[in-house]
Amino acid sequence: MKSLDFRARWLAVLLCAGLLMASGAGAAEARPHPDAEGVTRLPASQYAVAPLVSADGARAYVASIDEVGTSLDVVNTRTGRITAHVATSNGRWAGPLLFGAGGKQIYLLTDGTLNVFDTATNTLRASFPVPDQPRPEGSNPGSLSRAAISPDGASIYLSQTGPDNGAQSTGPSRLLVFSTVRQAFTTTVPLPGESPRAVVARPNGKDIYVSGDVGLIHLDVSTGTPTLLRTLSDTGFVDELALTPDGRRLYALSKPDGQAVLVDLDSDRVLTTIDFQSNYQPVLSPAVSRDGSRFYVLEDDHRSVPKVLSYKTATNTRVARETVSGFDMERGTGLTLGPDGETMYITGVNYVDDPGAFLQIVNF
Question: Taking phi first (over 0 means left), then psi (-120 to 50 degrees means alpha), and beta for anything else, what does residue 72 get?
């Protein structure tokens, strides 16, 4: 793994002439920075979620919120140019992105809808509203949160909060199953708690985990219908999840607490707790390196510059010299590790100087 001392490494970035361009509608500005390989403005966007990166690293797909709704931008990572800007909804929430089998489709969540994006034509191919849930008269449907796809690409699992009356929850949360073959929702099952968050599927195709207000929920999906096995309450409130490459361990992140727990999935046992010492300020976008040797989180306490913290997975201790900082954005909103194991894709926003949402690519 390369050193992450930015000031020593990024003078060579000024040679990347391909990133020095600006164009009109449908393209993006890309500008070098002493501490960054390339920064791409997302047109009209106000907020962007963590990007999805193609297997060859040539394209980054970024879902964002703009002035009229949500959109998906396709970024050529070699030039920093936006090759497609596609409206995805008129709502005000953009969820996470998932590749379908073979990377031919991207599944993305918007308000109450699962959408299918065709990566060959860069078009929105279909949209599937989630079925309504049992709820008291006058209450609102719960909000979609996160999703995961099965290893064989046949099923997508979506978490949804319980219905609410505008002030409090009025019913249980649930998990929905979408069949990519039948192109339809096939099953819904209730979940413990009111606010499920992230969903991950183990590579064995038998187990999925859902984070939320009750802790970490373990379900068996080997029969096609998810069955609750147990809830790990000793994790505390859990937001985001990151699997190790072998699928045997899981980092469960609590944003407001500024910590994560490491869970052994073979025994469903909490092994250790990592305190990011962020003074209870937000940490987000947990990610494990492809070789399994590092665990990363994006820290943004809204008081100082955003940074990526690096931890050695063998000891779950911080490697201070590998901290990544110096981003060309005031706030960080998402982190994705590239398939080459040497690139980070960071989304973020500026509020004061050059307002808007951006994608920044960093080699490390």
Answer: beta
Task: For residue 161, give the amino acid letter.
Answer: T
Q: At 251, is the secondary structure helix, strand, or coil?
A: strand
Tell me the two tokens of residue 247: 């699928």
Q: How many helices (DSSP H) and strands (DSSP E) are in the chain?
A: 1, 30
Give the C-alpha separation, 346 to 129, whole Å. 30
pLDDT tens digits, one per residue of 335-350: 999 999 999 999 999 9
- Token pair recorded at residue 323: 């901290």
Contacts of 91 (CB under 8 A, 6+ apart): 69, 70, 110, 111, 112
350 burial (CB, 10 Å; 0-12 / 13-18 / 19+) is middle
pTM over 0.70: yes
Task: Provide φ and ψ at 23, rounded to 5°.
Answer: -145, 180
**pLDDT tens, residue by residue, 82-138:** 999 999 999 999 998 999 988 999 999 999 999 999 999 999 999 999 999 888 888
Q: What are phi and psi of 347, to 5 degrees?
A: -100, 150
Instruction: Give phi and psi for 64, each to the nearest 5.
Output: -150, 165
User: 363 pairs with which residues across the strands?
Assistant: 343
Q: What angle do CA 34, 355, 298 make, to 5 degrees?
A: 60
Asked if 199 and 242 touch (Cβ cutoff 8 Å), the reply is no
